[in-house]
Write a structure and sequence with these properties.
The chain is built from 14 helices and 31 strands. Strands 3, 7, 8, 9, 10, 11, 12, 21 and 24 form a 9-stranded mixed beta sheet that branches. Strands 13, 14, 15, 16, 17, 18, 19 and 20 form an 8-stranded mixed beta sheet that branches. Bound molecules: adenosine-5'-triphosphate and magnesium ion. The site of adenosine-5'-triphosphate has 15 residues, from strand 8, strand 21, strand 24 and helix 10.
Length: about 575
């Protein structure tokens, strides 16, 4: 490609609205442009990279025995009503009505459509197992689209769905996909980690997320320093030090204006871990739908909201308002579990503890000497706290670390939660009707492009690995002489004929501008054609950011081929 004819508009400065490095660089280097909130154009260079990522995903999925198909983006409401998700999915599902008054949505995921297809084509256990996948645009009306391709509203996903006659077959495919994902992310050159994940409101028996480790990641991952244990903090378990506490009788104490756990602990000269923080939530979904529930944790812990959602089999929770707190007998700022009229859940670490301090549900008052096991007959315990760095690993006891991660893939053993309502049935070995068991497996293809840039960049721009770069070689013509352009053109065609992807910077720009752009774009090998070199029959070849090397004109191809290591084939 000749740069003078190519749409690759680079920007000198960081765009004001870009916060993370991948967003800044993909905009600056001319890979993407924003159309509207969470919706992007992939410019020619962006598309080249996207296609390379897709191809790696495709090759590995095919190698694993999955079959590619393509489903539509528009999905009729009937299918979602059948799976009971039309109401449940919430505002991320973009619903609309067509001219015939028919309700549809833009697909955020494709369980309904694939189940509908398979339910009509599946007859016998002999057709199973079967794994079908697509690489396609999804739409989710995300509440906070941000970070460019990282969290878009329209984005590209590889989604695969497997169907099985029994659990054993599902487990085997789950492992197959798990290994396939490891191969994909390795080929993409990423530092990644599979982590145990929450199975969420969907249910299902097993779930792992694959995270690319990066500071800009939206997820927090707990991983052990001594063993393989790694889990999203949404479900990570861990042990912590628990203060001994002194047994005593429950006593009311004045704590004027002390509302935070720290203030109360300081005022009472107590360990903040001995305080019981009581948080009240309004619950949506599940058996507590519409009710207020109290969650109690230690004063120096944070509540992990997803754990509470899971313990209550809810779909979402929201902090209760002052009126709602009052209605269940609480006093904002001084809420404690004793005397509340709502359901109360206590964190496991509060079990068998004595001498606890809690709000008294009276202004400027707390109680001391609380022993939940002794004083509260109907207490329920659950793991509600968020794992902290330094906690004990649940598997081996060593210290747990926390890292930020970008979720790039997700594998999920679903069971029959979709196939049951969607009636994906087949005749089993015994000749009886049976419901297929399912797995689903997603990869954020467009998010991956951002994730690679998060890990592969330097002060001059993007540093693509060879196999993902939009062009492997940039020919940079330095002078403006006809002989320089002619020589460059000859080299350009020679490289194209050899199957090398090359961007020839034939623009009438200063050399400094050309170098800057080639570095910003992250092109791995630069071939510099200057008038002086040509007089001596040489050009300069260098890998991005490395020293130059002079190469004779008739040795360019072998020199490049050795640098490319045969990867251009
Ligand atoms: P997240 O927690 O990041 O919202 P999710 O759990 O909703 O992700 P899945 O439904 O498992 O995601 O989708 C499969 C994959 O699609 C994810 O692992 C992620 O890589 C990608 N993905 C999900 N939402 C987005 C988005 N808004 N923009 C870009 N990629 C996304
Ligand atoms: Mg999501």
């Amino acid at each position: 490609m000749r740069y003078s004819r190519f749409l690759a508009p680079t920007l000198r400065d960081d765009p004001a609205d870009a916060e993370v490095i991948s967003h800044k660089l993909l905009l600056r280097a001319g890979y993407i442009r924003r159309v509207t909130s969470g919706v992007y154009d992939f410019l020619p260079m962006g598309l080249r990279v996207l296609r390379k990522i897709e191809q790696i995903v495709r090759e590995e999925m095919n190698r694993a025995g999955a079959q590619e198909l393509l489903m539509p983006m528009v999905q009729p409401s009937e299918l979602w009503e059948k799976s009971n998700r039309w109401e449940k999915y919430g505002p991320e599902l973009l619903r609309f009505t067509d001219r015939h008054n028919h309700e549809s949505c833009l697909g955020p995921t494709h369980e309904e459509v694939i189940c509908d297809l398979v339910s009509r084509e599946l007859r016998s256990y002999k057709q199973l197992p079967m794994n079908l996948y697509q690489i396609q645009s999804k739409f989710r009306d995300e509440i906070r689209p941000r970070f460019g391709l990282m969290r878009g509203r329209e984005f590209i996903m590889k989604d695969a769905y497997s169907f099985h006659a029994d659990e054993v077959s599902l487990e085997a495919e789950y492992r197959n996909m798990f290994e396939t994902y490891k191969r994909i992310f390795t080929r993409l050159g990423l530092k990644f980690r599979p982590v145990e994940a929450d199975t969420g409101s969907i249910g299902g028996s097993a779930s792992h997320e694959f995270h690319v480790l990066a500071e800009s990641g939206e997820d927090l991952i707990a991983h052990c320093s001594g063993c393989e244990y790694a889990a999203n903090v949404e479900m990570a378990e861990s042990s912590r030090n628990i203060p001994a506490g002194e047994a005593g009788d429950v006593t009311g104490v004045d704590t004027p204006n002390a509302t935070s756990a720290e203030d109360v602990a300081t005022y009472l000269k107590a360990d903040v871990a001995q305080l019981v923080k009581t948080l009240l939530y309004r619950i949506t979904g599940g058996p507590e739908d519409g009710n207020i529930v109290a969650a109690c944790i230690r004063g120096d812990d944070q509540l992990q909201e997803i754990k509470l959602v899971r313990a209550l089999k809810a779909t979402s929770i929201e902090m209760a308002s002052d009126e709602e707190i009052k209605a269940v007998g609480g006093v904002t700022g001084f809420v404690g579990p004793v005397g509340l009229s709502c359901r109360r859940l206590f964190d496991d670490t509060l079990k068998n503890s004595v001498g606890l301090i809690a709000g008294a549900n009276r202004i400027d008052m707390h109680i001391t000497g609380l022993d939940i096991g002794r004083d509260e007959s109907t207490s329920e315990f659950a793991d509600l706290r968020q794992t902290r760095a330094g906690d004990g690993c649940p598997k081996c006891g060593n210290a747990v670390k926390l890292s930020r991660g970008i979720e790039v893939g997700h594998v999920f053993a679903l069971g029959t939660c979709y196939s049951e309502p969607m009636e994906v049935q087949f005749q089993n070995r015994e000749g009886k009707r049976s419901t297929a068991t399912m797995g689903c497996y997603g990869i954020g293809v467009s998010r991956l492009m951002a994730a690679v840039v998060e890990q592969c960049n330097d002060e001059n721009g993007i540093v693509w690995p060879l196999n993902l770069a939009p062009f492997q070689v940039a020919i940079i013509t330095m002078g403006k002489s006809d002989s320089g352009l002619e020589a460059s053109e000859k080299i350009y065609h020679e490289l194209l004929d050899a199957g090398i992807e090359v961007l020839w910077d034939d623009r009438k720009e200063r050399p400094g501008v050309k170098f800057k752009d080639a570095e910003l774009m992250g092109l791995p090998i630069h071939l510099i054609v200057g008038d002086r070199g040509l007089e001596n029959g040489v050009v300069e070849v260098r890998r991005r950011n490395e020293t130059k090397e002079e190469v004779k004109l008739d040795q360019i191809l072998p020199a490049l081929q050795s640098l490319l290591g045969g990867s251009q084939a």
